[in-house]
Each structure stands twice: as structure tokens, then as C-alpha cells.
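hey
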């Protein structure tokens, strides 16, 4: 009887040990997977000390940007797209700094004298430079005397090699993921341009200014109000930024 009881105890302990080993193995595997994911997210920053990206939502407050009276204004679209881009980048592990997160202009944050417009731009420049970002993106909407003008345009400073690389990566992503993948427009392409914009000229870090569409085009005006349309633009911009950073570390 004692031998039978001892055998049962040994069998029970063996089952417990196996169960414990299985549970321990699952926990170890889970920890390894979590650490691997963290490595994949953080590895993109391994060659840099920081992981900051600055998003500049153009205009704001008293400065509505382009748009008609009693219609949606550029400043509102800029902020909506910028907030969606912020969410997209945070998911990837970036620290995101916004020049504004509400409907305000920034001239009161500037320490220089001059016109309201000049002080507003100076404040945006200071926010970018003081945060030492990997890149920055300034979000705007376009306008034209021609109601047929449409499409996304990406600007970089003519003398910025890194700005050009960033613009090309974002452009390719928009063409592939937004035009071709989302709105199913095989022939639509974003346009890369150079421009001597203050925000591009006076900043010390790679950056682009993106005009996400024309408010003077009735169709794009309607689409730019749509949450999912804005989200898809933001996602395409994010993927372009990731591509640029991936190429920069090679």
C-alpha cells in the first residue's frame, strides 16, 4: 500500500513539474517576444540619441490660412491631419512634439520683435530647433485660382540634401499607399518641389512642408473633411518617414 501511494505521489509530482515547465516555457517565450518587439521598435533609433519628431500644424488662431468665409479653413484641416499623424507616430515609438495642439497662433511664444506673422513663424522655428528632432513635418493645405488644381505637394529647402531624401521617401509612400492603395488612382502622383520657405530655411534639422490637398478644388475640399481620408494621408506620411529613417541608418 505504501509503495502504491509513493508511486501515485511521484506521478502527481511529475505531472506538476511538466505543467510548471510548460507554464514557465510559455512565460519565457512571451518575455522573449516582447523584448524582440521592443528591439524592433527601438532598433531604428540605435544610431541616434533621441527619437523626437516635430509636427507643425500650419496657421491657427487669428491666421486661418486659405479657405473661404463660412467654409472650412486651412488651419482646421492642418490640425486634424497633424493630430492623426501624431497618433500614427506614437504607435511606432516616437516622441512627438506638436507646435500647436489647438486653434491658436504662436506669436506670443516668440522673443523677437516684428509683425505677428514673423513672430509666429519664429516661434515654430524655435520649437523645432529646441527639440532637436530626427525630422519635422509642416502640414498645410493648398489653394489655386484654378479650381481643377489638385494633389499633394511636398516641399524641401533647395540646399537640404536630407530634406530632399525625406521628401522623396514621403512622396513614394503617398503614391504607393495613399493614391494607389487607398483611393485607387494609378495615375495620381504627389509632386516634389523646392521652395525657400522660412520654416525650411531657418530650421537646423531635416524637414518638409506638405500641402495635403487643394481647398479650392471642390472634390478635394470635400474629401479633406473626411476622417478616414485624413487618416490615410497621415499613415502614408508616417510610412515615408519610417523609410527615410531606415535608409539613414544604413
Amino acid at each position: 500500500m505504501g509503495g502504491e501511494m509513493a508511486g501515485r505521489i511521484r506521478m502527481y509530482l511529475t505531472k506538476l513539474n511538466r505543467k510548471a515547465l510548460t507554464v514557465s516555457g510559455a512565460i519565457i517565450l512571451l518575455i522573449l517576444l516582447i523584448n524582440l518587439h521592443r528591439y524592433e521598435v527601438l532598433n531604428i533609433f540605435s544610431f541616434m540619441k533621441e527619437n523626437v519628431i516635430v509636427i507643425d500644424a500650419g496657421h491657427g488662431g487669428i491666421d486661418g490660412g486659405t479657405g473661404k468665409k463660412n467654409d472650412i479653413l486651412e488651419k482646421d484641416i492642418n490640425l486634424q491631419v497633424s493630430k492623426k499623424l501624431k497618433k500614427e507616430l506614437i504607435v511606432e515609438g516616437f516622441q512627438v512634439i506638436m507646435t500647436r495642439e489647438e486653434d491658436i497662433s504662436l506669436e506670443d511664444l516668440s522673443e523677437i520683435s516684428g509683425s505677428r506673422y514673423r513672430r509666429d513663424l519664429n516661434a515654430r522655428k524655435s520649437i523645432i530647433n529646441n527639440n532637436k528632432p530626427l525630422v519635422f513635418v509642416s502640414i498645410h493645405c493648398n489653394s489655386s485660382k484654378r479650381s481643377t488644381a489638385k494633389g499633394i505637394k511636398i516641399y524641401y529647402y533647395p540646399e537640404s540634401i536630407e530634406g530632399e531624401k525625406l521628401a522623396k521617401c514621403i512622396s513614394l509612400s503617398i503614391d504607393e499607399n495613399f493614391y494607389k492603395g487607398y483611393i485607387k488612382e494609378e495615375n495620381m502622383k504627389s509632386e516634389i518641389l523646392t521652395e525657400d520657405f522660412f520654416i525650411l530655411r531657418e530650421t537646423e534639422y531635416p524637414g518638409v512642408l506638405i500641402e495635403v490637398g487643394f481647398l479650392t478644388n471642390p472634390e478635394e475640399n470635400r474629401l479633406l473633411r473626411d476622417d478616414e481620408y485624413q487618416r490615410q494621408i497621415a499613415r502614408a506620411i508616417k510610412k515615408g518617414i519610417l523609410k527615410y529613417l531606415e535608409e539613414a541608418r544604413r
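The CA atoms of residues 47 and 249 lie 7 Å apart. The first helix runs from residue 2 to 43.
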